[in-house]
Amino acid sequence: MAEEITYADFERVDIRVGTIIEASPFSEARKPAFKLLIDFGPDIGIKKSSAQITVHYTTENLIGRQVLGVVNFPPRQIGPFRSEVLTLGFEDENGAIVLAAVEQPVPNGRRMM
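Now predict its structure.
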């Protein structure tokens, strides 16, 4: 378990829901990954993310999927790609990433409460 934090610490992490509108292979990445364009609604807009999710997902089945992302981390340069949000997921029993998602449709940009 990670170090204990306060609720105020948690509130500083801005986790939002967004819809993947574009997904493409990230051939320049060291580990297999996809480049994602995620629509986080009118206030945040469309953001780019690199995600190592190639085991359980294809570019085709990602389009239209709602995902959770941290939108207030600084951008991270990954090779030639600038990732603007951290797409959230969990490791399965083999270490492959399974996306964190909402159970019912939620308007893009809604914040995790």
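The chain has a mean pLDDT of 96.
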